[in-house]
Structures are given as C-alpha cells and as structure tokens.
Amino acid sequence: MKVLLLLPLLIPLLTAIISLLVWDRRLQRIFGVIGMAGLLGSAVGLLRTVCKEGIQAVQVGGWPAPFGITLVADVFAAIMVVMAGLMGLAVMVYSLTSMDKRRESFGYYPLTHIMLMGVCGSFLTGDIFNLYVWFEVMLIASFVLTELGSEKAQLEGAIKYVTLNLVSSALFLTAVGVLYGMVGTLNMADLANQLAKVKPSGLVTTASMLFFLAFGIKAAVFPLFFWLPASYHTPPVSVSAIFAALLTKVGVYALIRVFSLLFTGQTAATHGLILAVAGLTMATGVLGAVAQNDFRRLLSFHIVSQIGYMIMGLGLFTPLGLAGSIFHIVHNMLAKTNLFLISGVVHRVKGTYQLSSLGGLSRSSPGLAILFLVSAFSLAGMPPLSGFWSKLILVQAGLQAREYTIVAVALVVSLLTLYSMTKIWNEVFWKTDPAEGEQEPAKTDSFGEAESSLALLAPIVVIGCLIVSIGLAAQPVFALFEKAAHQLMNPAEYIRAVLGELP
Amino acid sequence: MLIAVVSGFVFSLAVPLLHRTVRNVTDWLVVLLPFSLFIYFSFLTQPIAAGGVLSSSHAWAPSVGVNLSFVLDGLSLLFAILISGIGALVFLYSSGYFKGHSGLGRFYAYLLIFMASMLGLVLSDNVIALFIFWELTSLSSYLLIGFDHERSSARSAARQALLVTSVGGLALLAGLLLLGEAGGSFELSQLLREREAIRSHRFYVPIVVLIMVAAFTKSAQFPFHFWLPNAMEAPAPVSTYLHSATMVKAGIYLLARLSPVLGGARIWQGTIVVVGAITMLIGACLAIKETDIKRILAYSTVSILGVLTFLLGLGTRAAVEAAVAYLFIHALYKAGLFLVAGIIDHETGIRDVTRLSGLARIMPVTALAAAVAGLSMAGLPPLFGFIGKELLYTATLQAPLANSILTAAVLLTSALLVAVAGIVSLGPFIGRTMTLSEKHGGVPLTMTAGPVVLAGLGLLIGLLPNLVAGRIVSSAVGAVLAQPAAIKLALLHGLTVQLGLSGLTFALGVTAYLRRDALRRAVSRFDLGTALGPAKGYSLTLDGMTALARLQTRILQSGHLHIYLFIILAVTVGLVGSWLVRYYGLMRLEGWADIRFYEFLTALVIVAATIVIVRASSRLFSVVALGVVGYSMGIIYIIFGAPDLAMTQFSIDTLTVILLLLVLYRLPRYARYSTTLERLRDAAIALAVGVLVTGLTLAATAVPPISQISSYFAENSYLLAKGRNVVNVILVDFRAFDTLGEITVLAVAAIGVYSLMKLRGNGSDG
C-alpha cells in the first residue's frame, strides 16, 4: 500500500493541474470537491494502514535512504493528513457559496489545492530539505491566496505575511545548511542517528534554536507571531478559515517532529525554552484577543493563544504531554475553523465583523447560535466538548511533570478564553441587533436561498458534530493520540522504517 | 443511575422540537421526567437508610482516569431527592410562568441540562466526572441567567456568574487533579481509603486551598458572594431552582463530600468556619438593605449558605446534623418563597417590597403558602425551620472553641433573617390592597402548586420530623461523618437553652421587622460594599485586564513591519547567539595566513558591493551592485572547484539583473522614510545577523563530517543515473521530488502575478 503515501500529494497536484487546464469556474468547483474528498479518502486509508501495519515509508524515485527523498507516515503524520483533508473538504464546500466569482475565476481553487499539497507534503516528508520545499509551496500558495482580490487591506496584510514568512524561510534554510555542514545528510532519520554522535552536542542545540525560530514564526509563537494577526482578517473568510485550520499547525507539526526526533540531546534547555514560550504565547495571545472588537481579529489572536497549548505538551516532553498536544491540535483545527466559518455566515447575514454593530442572531438564527456555542465553549475547554479533554490531558501532564507555573497559566488562559468567547456570544448573539428597525444591509439577498445556505451550513454542522462526538467518545480518540505520542517518544521505529535494519 | 443522569441530557435535545410540535404534551412530559426520578430516589431511601450504598460504573475515558461511576449514599440521596422533587415543581411552575412564551422550549432544554448535570454532580464517584458536571451546571446557569438576553443587565449578570464560578471551576480542576495525584485514584471511594496518605502529602495544602476556592465561588461565599444577587436577573423558576435550592449548594456538597478525606486539619476547619461566619453575617445585613424582593431572598440565601459552610467547618456531629437538616429546610422554604416572589412579579410586575401591599386579598392561596414558608424561615414551631434552629444552636453551643462568639453570631444572623422573613412573606400581603393596572384573573394552579407543596412539606416534617429523620437525614449525616449515625428529630425538647435562644431570636427579629425602614437606612449608611467591595474588585479586574490587553497589543502588534522584523531578528541573534557563545566562547579566527590574496579581494568586492546596494540613491545602482555580489559569489565557487555551480550562478545573476532593470526602470525614485537613528539601528541588527551566521557556519563546518551523502552522489551519478553533471542529476533525479515542489512554486507565483495585475479589488468581500 505504498501508493497511499503518495496519494495525498498527487491528488491535490493533479486536481490543481486539471483545474488550471480547464480554467473554467464551474468545472473547477466540481473538481475541487471531488479532489478534496479524494484527499480525505486517501488520508483515512493511510491512517488505517499506519495503525494496522506500523510506520510506512516510501523512497521516492527508488533511491535508497538516506540518499534520495523519503516519505514517511507515522500515526501523528497520518492524523494530520486526515485533518488536512477534512478541513480542506469542509472549506471547499463552504467556498462554493461564499467565494465570489472574480476570485474563483482567478484560480482560487487550484491555489487551494496546491496549498493542501504543500501542507500534506510537510506532514509526510522524511527529509529536512524536502520539508523546506513543501514550506515554500505552502507559503507561495497561501501568499497568493492572501492577496487574491487585491483589496488594499489584503495587500497590506499580504506584504507583512510574506515578508515575515520569508525571514522564517531564510532561517530554515540557514538551519538546514548548518545541519548539513555538521553531518552531511538531510534524511531526518539519518540525521537523528548522526546528530547523536556530534561533539560537542552544544552545537546541535545551537542549530536547533534556528529551527525553533524558523518553525516558531510559522507556528506563530511569542514573540514571533506578528504576521498572523496582521493578515488573517484581510482575505475572504474561507481563506482565513483554511489558514487558521492548517498553516500554523504545520509549524507546530514541524516543531514537534524535529524536537522529538532530532533535538533531544539537551531537553532541559530546549524543551524548557519551548515550555516558557508556550506559556508566554498563551498569555499574550489571549490578551491580544481581549483587546479586539472585530470578530475575525479576535479569533486570529486566539489562534496564537491556542498554539501555546499545542507546544506545551512538547515542552513537557512526556508521552501524556505529547498526546495532549496532538489532541489539542486536532481539537483546535475543528473548533477554530468552525468559528471562522461561522463568522463568515454572520458577516454574510449582517454585512460586518464589528461586534458593536452585530446582534440579535440567537433569535434570528438559533441553529447557528447553537453551533457557535458548541465551538466557542469547546475552544474555552468546557466539558464535555473536545477542548475540555485536551486541556485536561495537558494539565494532568503538567502536574505530573511538576511544571506548576505552566499549568496555572494554561488554566487562567482558558478562563480568559471563556471571557472573550462570552464577549462574542453576548454581543453577536444575545444583544439585540443595533440596526433593528433600520434598513437591513443589502447583504442579506442570497442567504435565503435554500441550497446556498445548505452548502454554507453543512460543513459547520458536520464540524460541530465532530466536536461533540470527540468529546463524548474521548477514549478511542485519545487512544489513537496516545499511540501517536508513543511513536514520537520512541523514534527507533521511525528510524527503522526509513533506513531499514541498518546498524 | 446512568439512565437517571443521561435521560435529562437526551430529553433536552428533543424538547425544543417537541415544544414546537406538541406544545401541551411537552409541558407535562418535562414534569414527568423529574417526577419519576423523584419517585425512583424516594424508593431508594429505605435501602440506603439501612446502610446500603448503590453504585454503578461505566467506562468513559479510562486512559485519563475518567469514568461515569456513580455512587448513591445518604448525602447524594438527599441532594438527588431535592433536585428531582423541586425540579418537578419548578418545571410545572415554568409552564405557567412562561405561558405562551416563544422561548419556552429552549428554556426547558437548558433547565433539563441543568437538572441532569446537577444529578450527575451529586452522584459521581469519579472526581473528574464530578468536575465535568460541575462545569455543566455553571454553563447552564449562564444560559439561564441570560435567558432574557435582550436586557444588557441580564447579559452581564450571566457572564459575571459564569466567570466567577469558572474561577472556582479551574481551581476545582487543579485541586481534584492534585488530589488524584496524592491519593492515586480519581474515585472518591478509593480516595476515602487513602485519607492518611493524602493528609500527609505535600499537596495537601494546595488541594485544600483550591477546593475551598471552588466551593466558595459556587456557593457564593465571601468574597465571591456578589454574583448571586446579580444572578437574580434570571427568571423566577431559575432563581428558585439553581440559585437557591440546588446549584449554589454544590459548593456545600463538595465540602461535605470531601470533609471525610480532607477535613479535620486546622487550615480546613479554621478557614471554612471563618469564611462561613463572615458570609452569614454579611448576607443577613445586606438582605435587610435591599428592597427588591428577589435580591432580598438572594442575600438571605447567601447568609444561609454561610451558615451551612460554617457548620461543615465545625465538623462536629451536632454541627453536621444541623447542616444536613438546615440544608433540607432551607431548600423547602426558600424555594417556596422564590416561587412566591415569582408569582408576585408575574402578576403585578413589581418587585419592590416597599411598594407591595395587601396582596393576600388578590392571591389568598399564595399568601397562605408564603406565610407558612416564612414561619419556617423565621424558625417558629411547629415548622421544620424551628427544629433546624434548635439544632443550629445545639451545634454552636457545643462548638469546640469560641462557642459564645459563634452563638452570638448565629443569634444575630437568625434575628435578621426573622426580619427578612417578615419583609418578604408578610409585608407584601398585608395592609392596604393594591390596585393592579390590568384585570387580574387569578394565579394559575400550575404556579401555586409549588409554593403550596413546599410550604406544606415544611409543616408536615415539622409535625412529624421522623418521617425524614431516619430515612434521609441520618444517612446523609452518616455519609458526611463517614460513620453510621442514627438521628432522632423532635419538635420540642422541653425547656432548654436552645429554646430560650430561639425565643430571643424571634423577639429580636420581630423588633427588627417593625423597625425595618430605620434598619435599612442604617445598614445602607455603613455599607462600604459598593465602594470597596468584591463586586467593585470584579469590575476593576475586568477593566484592568482590558487595559493591560490593549497596552500589550499596542506594543506587540504595532502594525509596523520594520518593528516586527527588528524584533524577530533581535530574538534570533539573542537566542542563537547566546547558545553559540555559551558553547564556543567568543571565537578567535585562526588561519588568516591560509587566505590567498584573490580570495581576500573577492570578499572585499562583495562587501563593497553590498554597501553600495544599501547606500545607493537609485534602484539601478543597487541592481547592478547586486549583480556584482552574485558574480563574485560565482568566482568563489570557481576558486573552490565547483565550476558547475559557478555557471549556474552566473546565468541566474545575469538574468536577474536584466529582469530587475526592466521592471524597476518604471518605478519612482527611492524615498527615505526612516530617520538616521532608525537606519543605524537597522544597520546594527543586520550586522549582528551577519556575524551570527558567519560564526555559525564556521562552527558547523569545523565538525568532522560523519556521513557524506555527497560522495554517494558523485560516485553514482554516472553509474546509476546516467548523468555526468552531478548538480543536474541531483536536481532532476536523486532529488527530483524537490524540483517538483519548486516548479509548483514558480507556477503559483505566475498565477499570483497574473491575478495581481488583472484582478483589482472592488470592495467585495466573501
């Protein structure tokens, strides 16, 4: 079943190529949904295979590792690919209604597929330079998606986005160069073997700091997160949603990968730093959100805050902690994407993202209100939703590791998250609409159409149901994440899958 | 028992739909559920009183130690009976209170979620499950307080209640997790066995503090009491059910439940007694001050919660007996009075006690129920409240220390509460008959049923206390003390000190009632709460946090790209540089002699060209200088024996320079935006990054190479890949996958350029 490893890259690529060749808006929509569904299907197949048969690896082009490029899927990577496919499909269906014709005809769909290819490539590659390439693919596709439409705010956001991310790329490339200079190999499994032999190990740690910074910018951790709140609220909401779902998580994924596989020689220093950054990221992000009065800006800062939780488990570097991190990544992809999608529906109905000019939605759209409530309270870690479990596991892991400060920060930040979620709820849903009685904004025209609102709401409903069901069926989900964490903590299996039975 | 808990959740999902389709049936169905639960739990009193304990366990997330394990003992049973019994009456009442209200289906759903969560809370043996239900009660309380969400006061009260109780919730989570660490299990029944280990564990004090914060926030103890009166924004059925009879007692439940595990130590006992005593006094005083009938009742609830807390803190047998009895009594009469207040509000639209009078003529049944409940609150025989007061005085008189002070405090509180009982249950009904604006058609039976039943029970139990003494109270006391208890309750014990104290209480209370207006003014004058109290603290905290958030965001997210870049680069230099220096010290560069003259010259050209790039006043100069840098790099490649690479570099640079010249030619001249100081700062950071990367490269290449994949490429390029140019073979064969990605990048860039040129923003936004 080696082909399963390639499918998550080939399907988006082929879909993008076909979409570009036909260059017809309507056909692109159809191919878009088919392609994303295919991606999700292949990803699920991959996850099943990995769970059943262990870590899978493919040597691309038949060149043996460590000389060629290897694709590897362990449980963690497979989970991430499944999530990418799921989010891609959800946002694709949502876009069918929400995306405007002009952007559609300028390549929105193929760009999204290419971005997904970059994301999946980052998850599956076993080669550190190849990871860089996928980062570039992702960056250029997301950059074009950010500026697509060329509105003033978009361009301003896009410039900041691309400049800061290029700094990340430069740091990443420098880091790869330094590693190659030290041990002369690029295959991550091989690197893991060789780096352990480098003397002095301090140099490896120094290089690891470069990786930490490069991926930290991508993941938007403190104090490197500026690009995110500067750009995420500018493009159309489905673009914000897919970015929120995937981009920072790729950074987090890369952090977890290299700091569990490559840089484990001086965990007291490296992972201690990660833990401190986790706490600061949580706190500064949530405070940033508290200061906002715009639906999407508020959500953007929450992305930052939640990244802190994701790397908290990595900082603890225990099996429970990593399982908690993975749980939090998955949970957050669902909850945050859904909140963005809901903000888009609200915008469609009311024509604004400003909290002060919104209101009355719990009366006019009770279904949407419930979906928001589920996602928002899940984000704040309210039981028994998905976010509660990841918070519980991370806090438990923190207490077991005797890291009381980070536990306290995590708990207080979840309270502040609750605060800002109830702020949205009170303003957007409970408050009476300040525009009530006045003329309705012109935006309400198309929302009444049954099929268009179905395409908008179906993804939100499905994700909402997933949030609830992960909460209720926490055990099987957690067992899967535990397995993933176990593989991360014991890289021998990964190395063996890539290099074979080498000494 | 799982069914008992889950049924409410499942039903809550169906109720909004049912309510829309079969409205009248739904009203009865929602009463039927709690009522059948009430019957179920009532039948269990016998086996539980006989010393039995019912338990059931279902795995939920065993990997993290979370199970739906339920244990029904005396304490849980007392709560379960109150929750289901009062629940049935409240649901019945709501159908009348909200007759014709469009949101009733939603209301039922929230209330059912609450009921199920509350049952789950008191039945859970697993502490994490207990926490989950605890949070769910906070959540449903939030939704219920804000039920009338178009008023901004309801919205902010709902949020205040949620935030304050969530502070406790987080403390509870941390406390319970620590407790689990200390005791090695998340099951209460296991923890009970480990109590010695827990009490001597280093986590003991943090656990106690965290649990107390949780209990005090939930049960509105000083200094967290302020949310409860504000929660009176909720509709009357909610105030009755959540904020008097059940949810606010969850904190009491927690203290009672954990006192066999944690109790006995001085920190536990002392803190709880002191906080409880302060709360009961403050609550009673503030109740006198208010004129809004619901807020009066809310403060008197705060006061009674203080009494319960302080009794549990004392922890003696007499105190626990009094606490259990009082909890029961209070639930009966206070729920009744809240329902009465709801009726008054519903029928007259007025909640100000100074404006209400003579309602007995208009609503005689309600007035009678109010009077009986009020008598129980005042502690007069032959009502249940009287028995409670006797037990209370017994407990304070037998207190291990400071019994005279405690007795005096209780006397003062009780006397004030007698006056409060008069204000709410007598005042509105006597005197001149009010004229109601609209024609009054009588209070519906669904609404009077609750107060009548509750007041009647207070009377019945007062007359025949042993109806509940053996079956319910004894087993609850036994559960709190963790040893069997057989309790006999009686109305009269003959002439005792307690009876004298009760008489004194009543006399003082009546005096206070008669002089209530003067008293209200007096309390208001000495009230510092509004200026300095915890409610002020709450709003200051929120304001302060928001201000801090704004400040932080202004500093961090300034909106200036050059500041972002500066910070990122500075962090890079600081972080990587400090590590490099830590392991290498400040490097001394050696081997200067090995540098040949032309190498040195090339490097010098690169540096000079770079300075030109930055300093040039026109773009053309910069581009040409850039080309010089590129060509010099190519020369270095040649010097070090990589002609393939050099050729590539030369062609790329030629192309770049030509293209850039073509494009940039049309752009306007450079403008200077930054000050000299900023330019110096930027130069410094650029230099620092350069030095850092140089140092890093030197350090990295100094490591003796271990594995060399490049030699494999060199050897096998021709043999296996049939190509002589190694660089080409790497690009198109060994690592062709990278090239695939890079080609994709170029294609996307082309789309981007195309869209930038062709697609102009028109303000449309998805």
UniProtKB/TrEMBL annotation, chain A:
Keyword tRNA-binding: no
Superkingdom of origin: Bacteria
TM segment ranges: 6-23, 30-47, 67-94, 106-125, 131-149, 161-183, 203-228, 240-263, 269-291, 303-330, 368-389, 401-421, 456-481
Domain NADH:quinone oxidoreductase/Mrp antiporter transmembrane: from-to ranges: 127-417
GO cellular-component term (any): plasma membrane
Localization, UniProt: Cell membrane; Membrane
Keyword Metal-binding set for record: no
Family statement: Belongs to the CPA3 antiporters (TC 2.A.63) subunit D family.
Name of the protein in question: Na+/H+ antiporter subunit D
Taxonomic lineage: Bacteria, Pseudomonadati, Candidatus Hydrogenedentota, Candidatus Abyssobacteria
UniProtKB/TrEMBL annotation, chain B:
Chief location bin: membrane
GO MF annotations in UniProt: antiporter activity
Domain NADH-Ubiquinone oxidoreductase (complex I) chain 5 N-terminal: 64-108
Pfam families, per the entry: MbhD, MbhE, Proton_antipo_M, Proton_antipo_N
A GO cellular component entry from the record: plasma membrane
GO biological process, one term: monoatomic ion transport
Membrane topology: Multi-pass membrane protein
Compartments it resides in: Cell membrane; Membrane
Keywords per UniProt: Antiport, Cell membrane, Ion transport, Membrane, Transmembrane, Transmembrane helix, Transport
InterPro entries: CPA3_Na-H_Antiporter_A (IPR050616), MrpA_C/MbhD (IPR025383), MrpA_C/MbhE (IPR046806), ND/Mrp_TM (IPR001750), Proton_antipo_N (IPR001516)
Keyword Transmembrane among UniProt keywords: yes
MrpA C-terminal/MbhE domain: residues covered: 678-758
Residue stretches spanning the membrane: 28-54, 74-95, 107-134, 161-182, 203-222, 267-289, 296-316, 322-344, 365-384, 404-430, 442-465, 485-514, 563-585, 597-614, 621-640, 646-665, 685-703, 739-757
Presence of keyword Ribonucleoprotein: no
Organism superkingdom: Bacteria
Record-annotated MrpA C-terminal/MbhD domain positions: 604-669
UniProt-listed PANTHER family: NA(+)/H(+) ANTIPORTER SUBUNIT, NA(+)_H(+) ANTIPORTER SUBUNIT A
Protein name (record): Putative monovalent cation/H+ antiporter subunit A
Organism encoding this protein: Candidatus Abyssobacteria bacterium SURF_17
